[in-house]
Amino acid sequence: xxxxxxxxxxxxxxAEGKKPEESFTLKLPSGGELVVExxxxxxxxxxxxxxxxxxxxxxSKFQPGSIIxxxxxxx
Length: 75
Fold this sequence. Notes:
Blueprint: H1 9-12, E1 23-27, E2 33-40, E3 43-50, H2 54-58, E4 67-69
Antiparallel strand pairs: 1-2, 2-3, 3-4
């Protein structure tokens, strides 16, 4: 079964009383943006990729759900 949602899965089926993590954007070297949420010490989880560069979508580091270490390069 495939479920297509206009919002991230966590927002749609979040437990009552639990608010989703606050998200913010990170600028990519290509000019695109990553919408991410904080998930620990110097780590963020990718929520959404916004870019006009097709190579950004082929980069496995930028897939939604991926964990990025902020101390590492985004290239």
